[in-house]
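Quick log. Single chain, no ligands specified.
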Amino acid sequence: MASLPVEALQVAEPAWKPENLPAFPAIALKALQLIAGRDTSLLELCNLIRADSEFSSAILKIANSPLIAFSKNITSVLQASMLLGFRRLKCVVITVGLRDYLSRPLTPLMRSCWQHSVACALIAERAAIWSSLDRDFAYTAGIMHDIGRVAMLATMPELYARVVENEADQPHDLLARERELFGVDHSDAGAVIVKAWGLAGAFVEVTAGHHSEGLRCGGTASVIAPSCMLADVLGFGVARYRALRSYADIVKTFPVATWERFPREPDKFVEEIAEEIRVVEAV
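-> predicted structure:
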């Protein structure tokens, strides 16, 4: 069956409306606010996790996985939080929260969106460490950079599938399709969402500008756009692009301190990222 052109799918009013979005998991939103500097209570976060059986189970599975590799079995959320540390616990909670924001079971497109976000976060975290930047913010911003697309996909999965079903030259082609179909693209939608959640302006900058190569973000935010591009090139993309830049070219867009730290051949790097994604997917 032939695909309908985007023009045939246009609606009289924008199909995407912020007021229709499902609520982001409260525990994950709390962790985001902690990273944004609005609170510092590890105990409060632990109590929230313990009150939710699904989150508790996910945290314990990750704490006992090869990804963490503790020497003993972890049996409680409090024990996991103490061994993981506040930084790692927040990142795990946000990652699980994003996954749960997508409906279950995950469709192939939802899984691609999820894997792209996690891959971007893992790449950004590495780049931040190598550049002595804020690894917490880098990982979290990487996870959340595509929240606009995640929200569109979570609320309109069949309609959003039309956006990515055909190849495009560049990500900007997909943004144009989104604007034609929904009246807004996922970058601008993401900015609206994180503003509504009361997160720091840096998160707004990242969600709004992660496809803007000409935008020169300062500090840790500077690693998010290239991490997004690198995730696509390494095979963790949502759409099929015909004209992506090469791995070597994208590496050169990161801060100079990271250039020599990226592997010359990306195959092992891809497998490392894929393994970490598999562990989190299994919880």
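Residues 77-101 form the longest helix (25 residues).
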